[in-house]
Amino acid sequence: MTNERKKYEGKRAVLLRCAYPYGKSQTWLPNDLNKVGAKLDAIGIKTDVVDLNLENMPTNLREYDYIGVGVVGATYVPGTIQLARTVRELTGKKPLIGGPGVEYFSPQEFEKLYGDSVQIRNDNDLSVAIGRQTPPVFDVSINRRLNEINPKLLEKQSMYKDALDLAKRLLPKPIPGLVTVETYSSLENKLN
After folding, report:
1. Most CB contacts within 10 A, which of 104, 109, 141, 158?
2. What is the dihedral of CA 171, 180, 55, 44, to 10 degrees?
3. How far apart are alpha carbons 186 and 164 in whole angstroms?
4. Distance between CA atoms of residues 146 and 107, nearest Å
5. What architecture is domain 3-139?
6. Confidence band (pLDDT; 50, 70, 90) for 81?
7. Which of 104, 121, 115, 36 is nearest to 81 (CA)?
């Protein structure tokens, strides 16, 4: 283990997916957050992903060193503004806000909407926010993260099963470095 990695061992992060604001009953695997989580895991920061469509807000938010909020698109902006405010009130920490819904905001627009939060537009912003270079997304795998998904969450949403079926059709043979059919098969076993 490198000295740099040791420096981050024991650090923890949580990445939050805001609940969809318009009562939509289907959710999808938060693979965007899992990719960021895999990057953080790779440098020694243990990372949890919480999809607020399926789970409650963690009661232990203060225990995390970093709290990220993923903004999938414009429809999530109002909810994530409130979520950022809640994170600051509960923890006193600046949430890291990233994703397609905020990456094109100017710093002034972002600050006006999100206040005392950190805008994550790209890998460099993430590295600066945590004080350490993260590996490129193509150098990490979300395979382990998918295998650790709570089966009770999988039971709640049929979209996970649809993802398994699609993977079987599109990935009949494993491709090194990518999520494999075996990964999705292990998820399917949790559903059964």
Report:
1. 141
2. -150
3. 9
4. 34
5. 3-Layer(aba) Sandwich (3.40)
6. very high
7. 115
Token pair of 138 as six digits = 């193509």
Angle subtended at Cα 148 by Cα 88 and Cα 59, rounded to the nearest 5 degrees: 25
The answer to whether residues 172 and 188 touch, using CB atoms and an 8 Å cutoff, is no
Structure tokens at 119: 């805008």
Helix axis angle for 77-91 and 107-114, nearest 10°, is 70
| Cβ contact 54:47 at 8 Å | no
Residue 96 token pair: 């890291």
More confident residue, 191 or 76: 76
- Could you count the other beta carbons within 10 Å of the beta carbon of residue 78? 12
- Residue partners of 23: CB distance under 8 A and separation at least 6: none
Which of 167, 165, 169, 160 has its CA nearest to residue 191? 160
Kindly report the number of other CB atoms within 10 A of residue 188's CB atom: 18
The strand pairing partners of 12, in sequence order, are 46
Domain boundaries, the chain: 3-139, 143-191
